[in-house]
Fold Lipoprotein-releasing system permease protein.
Amino acid sequence: MTAADRAEGEAEQTGAAPTRPFSAFEWMIAGRYLRSRRREAFISVIAGFSFVGIMLGVATLIIVMSVMNGFRTELLGKILGINGHMLVQPIDMPLTDYDPVSKRIEGVPEVVAAIPFIEGQAFVSGPAGGFGGLVRGVYESDLRRMPLVANNIRAGTLDDFDSGQGIAIGSRMAEQLGITLGDSITVLSPRGSVTPMGITPRRKAYPVTAIFEIGMSEYDATFLFLPLPEAQAYFNMDNRATGIEVYVTDPDRVGVMTQAIEDAADRPAFVTDWRQRNVTFFSALEVERNVMFIILFLIVLVAALNIISGLIMLVKDKGRDIAILRTMGATRGAVMRIFLITGASIGCVGTLAGFILGLIVCLNIESIRQFVSWLTRTELFSPELYFLSRLPAEIDSGETITVLVMALVLSLLATLYPAWRAARLDPVEALRYE
């Protein structure tokens, strides 16, 4: 029988009853250990660093994952808002029956719109210079069914778009070409008229009747929209279309809808979806997101290791106090719970503080970016590099709960070994040289 067992036996013989698990007595002792005293200042500093580490780790994880989610959602919305969820292209024969095919595809359940279009590359020029652009011809009714364009007209209108010979361009293109509403831009295409001397480039000036701003710099600087009949005439594609863009209610279900779209087309056609066309881009985003999670997880892990070192030092410093508590009747379980409460309190409060900090930053991420840009006089999150004109953040409740649970579990696990060592302390050995 050890000295600790003899002490517990003597306490039982004197009628001392063991305290209830997690009683007020245990919380009181744990609270006293958490409060700083001059003799324990170094231990309190370690506990403070552990708290700050967990808070910053949790906050950083929530912020970074939210920004990555916002990136994916914004880019997915912009890309699919222009290019559609599925693309139907002709095989073996030109797509001359695009109108009836579009109507049949729109009859498929979960299909929102089927938009025939003409697409071609061209060189566009204005007073301030010129560069390459992507000309897309669509009906006015179909252009209005693309809310990313129709709801973001910054100047002009889409009224009478089909009947006129005007063109709709992005805001960054208008800025780079140095033109405003009503000015004309020149569109030059290598696919021109066939002459005895060969194919001559086609050059034509169009008045700007609408300027849109999607919010994705690459699209605002590249896309031009012409009426479908005018685009057919310009690219020598009379009564033909390049393809049909299909929009569905749930972009994640395009895989199971491919066969239904092919059956509805009722002609040789090649159907691809947004995942196949953008697989490299979104795979890179997913890899970056997972790597960032692993890297930032290490911050929380380091903070949890600080809890272990701080509690071990606290156990060594409080050896005499633990021995006195044991001789007064405190059980090993009570001592272990006291140090569990001490360490877990740091982790729980740090996790809660990190959650609040991360939530505040995510809800004000764009204002913070603008303030830091103003303070440092630099442009953070340049639209030319990151494609988007604003810094997005989308908090996912499932991911946030996972981060919080992970931090709490790590904090709890970090307290087990120091608390076990405190419970195993022999009171006789601790008081031998006192």
